[in-house]
Amino acid sequence: MNAAAKYVVIAQNVIASIEKGHLQANSKLPSLRHFCKLHDISMTTALTCYRYLEQRGYVVAEYKKGYFVLPLKTEQGIKHFPIFQSTVTKNLIKLELQTDLISKPSLATAQLDAELIDDTLIKRSFRSITKQTELSLQYDEIQGNKALRWQLSNYFKKQGFMCHHDDLVVTHGCLDAVLIALECVSKPGDVIAVTSPCYSGLLNVLGVLDRAILEIPSTNEGIELGQLEQAMKRKEITACLLTANHQNPTGHSLSNQQKQLLIKLANQYSIPLIEDDVFRELSHQQTIPLPLKYFDQQGWVIWCSSVSKTLAPGLRLGWCLPGRFKNEFIQQRMIRSLGHNQPIQLALADYIANGYYETHVKRVNRAISAQCSDYVKFLKNNLPEQAEIFVPSGGLVLWVKIPNVNTQQLAVKLAKQGVYIKPGNLFSTTKLYQDCVRLNIGLIPSKAIYSQLELLCQLVHIEKNVL
């Protein structure tokens, strides 16, 4: 048997083991040297076999660590999003934020498990930058430390997304970037288009800034572009605030075709698109998707993101590509603060430069993808049959529809027992999602987590029987 045929046969055997569950998701495959001995093959044949598996989405390579099994892809559970006619909502209700819960890991907060935060290498980068001559305790550039902007630019180029470091502005996280962007392109009373459902944090920001909103229905392919275009054409909206990749709370993404159509509409009607892209790099697939900004040639997209979800929320660092609004954005940045914490910026630059961040993102994505499968499996086995689970393409959240259950009342009852979830009513000004719930899947499944999920499922069954 020739080498070409042999690696395919061996690879098919590995695939069979993965699909039968003999090789678990996230498990490490034998080293290339050991794989050669196991199958009595050359290093070239072994490497070709592993690359064959990687190209077909069964394994992923991590630099200097080896090859790991990826979770098998699952089908999305929700067949249809609610269909409705968009209407403008003014005077958004300003919710009282539960500040005591923000710092506590729970099923309600979209954040990584503490064990998935790369403490060791982040601290190494902090120690490293204290020895650098570049470190000073003077004011840094308002636009952000040049070393960090250069490293971010170089890192994005590896993803096929070209952006010049002089076009980037460093912010205090993604939400900070979004807030500044909104103040650059709109004023109190202006109408901002958002997808429905929409991340509750964005609705809170819009409420605080006294902006009105127009909720555009979501579809399985992305968003209802027909209604959005009509709103642009009638000049009903001033700007759009959208998430194109792994949207919060549903986890779904826009196709590249929809992204291009959105850019076309923005150009045609001169409407700014503020892109909240904080979950883009947390892909459960093998490929990290492209942002809306990638397709933007005229500068109408204001791209916002951060490392809060991918690396560590405590760093409080994000960035923005403001496009044609760069000068206004930097002016707004200057009004708020005279720059950022330089040591943290230099530490993140060092972390990226050493390849730690790229490796970390791959490791986290493997873990989150596997965790997502575990959460979905448990919920499917324990929730009523009518429950629908939207299996996300990426991100840290799971959107679940539980017919005939008021999830706001469910959340209150769970909170009394120390279990916290985000009910669907928080993600819309409509009443369309009162039977939905968003769950954090960033927490590693444990006995304590499964106990919380079990209590949730038990109360769901009780609530259904009451109705």
UniProtKB/TrEMBL annotation:
Domain HTH gntR-type: 4-72
Keyword annotations from UniProtKB, A to Z: Aminotransferase, DNA-binding, Pyridoxal phosphate, Transcription, Transcription regulation, Transferase
UniProt entry tagged with the keyword Transcription: yes
Pfam families tied to this protein: Aminotran_1_2 (PF00155), GntR (PF00392)
GO molecular function terms noted in the UniProt entry: transaminase activity
SMART domains xref list: HTH_GNTR
Family membership noted in the UniProt record: In the C-terminal section; belongs to the class-I pyridoxal-phosphate-dependent aminotransferase family.
Designated name of the protein: PLP-dependent aminotransferase family protein
